Amino acid sequence: MGELSIKIKIGDREYPMKVEAGEEERIRKAARKVNEQLQEYYKLYGTTDKQDLLAIVAFDVFVEKIEQELAFTGMKEGITERLVALNKLIAHSLA
After folding, report:
1. Nearest to 55 by CA among 43, 38, 69, 40
2. Parallel, antiparallel or unpaired: strands 3-10 and 13-20
């Protein structure tokens, strides 16, 4: 697949970008989600300052990302503990 030249509109601005054809839908979906969040925060806070709204969206995205990373780390540690326990059980059964 080749590169595509697309334009993404976020807020009131268009951003030209080059993306791999297989990534286009994911990029457009991300732009839609940003615009949806902008609208939600506009309704919630009543501010029309796009920079403030974008800052709040960016902040919320990173808070969610950090929460997911922490959850993944906890899940990974739990899986590792279970694998160690299973390995011990198997080794004990074979002995």
Report:
1. 38
2. antiparallel
What's the pLDDT tens digit per position in 22-63?
Answer: 999 999 999 999 999 999 999 998 888 889 999 999 999 999
- C-alpha triplet 13, 19, 21: angle, nearest 5°: 125
CA atoms within 13 A on the CB side of 50: 6
Amino acid at 17: M
Long-range Cβ contact pairs of 49-53 (< 8 A, separation 24 or more): 50/11, 50/12, 53/11
Give the DSSP letter of residue 21.
G
Backbone angles phi, psi at 58, to 5 degrees: -60, -45
Q: What is the pLDDT of residue 1?
A: 64
